Amino acid sequence: MRDKIKEILLESIQIKEEMLHTCIGEIMEIARSIIDCIKNGGKVILFGNGGSASDSQHIAAELVGRFRIDRTGLPAIALTTNTSVLTSLANDYGYEAVFARQIEALGQKGDLAIGISTSGKAKNVLAAIKQAKKMGIKTVVMTGKDGVELAKLADISILIPSSITARIQEAHIIIGHIICELVEQNLFQT
Length: 190
Prior knowledge:
Elements: H1 2-22, H2 24-39, E1 44-48, H3 51-64, E2 76-78, H4 83-93, H5 100-106, E3 112-117, H6 123-134, E4 138-144, H7 148-153, E5 156-160, H8 165-188
Parallel strand pairs: 1-2, 1-3, 3-4, 4-5
Helix pairs in contact: 2-8, 3-8, 5-6
């Protein structure tokens, strides 16, 4: 068991070390995009499935609530939290439409749409990014190394250098935390 724990920790560390060389520019670009969006009266819209849904909700909560600084709330919403909306859309239009339809209803130019998919193959995330682009909403995607198709659709993309779901999710949430800290520092420096 000890060896397995060491193996998992080392694997996670190795991926983050690779991110030091491949992701810093994109992380900065996402943080700047959120800062600009909020300064200009827009909101951050996040979405994903499963663990990525949880990551969407977690990041939205950090922005609306607080991360490290007591401050006013920032406009962010996760499209994964209203079960009545999700289930009615899935029933009436199919699961593929659950995020795109919400983007259509809630999104506006000046907002920032952030889709999270470890595989990059989630049809509802793909559809939502396409809908956001159609509406002139800036788009961000966080995915794994196999999510090239989804990454190509977005204005800004981060591909985590792994195909292991758990390691990709760990990387996504550290990126979310870094972004929240950068946004707070920039908007609420004292």
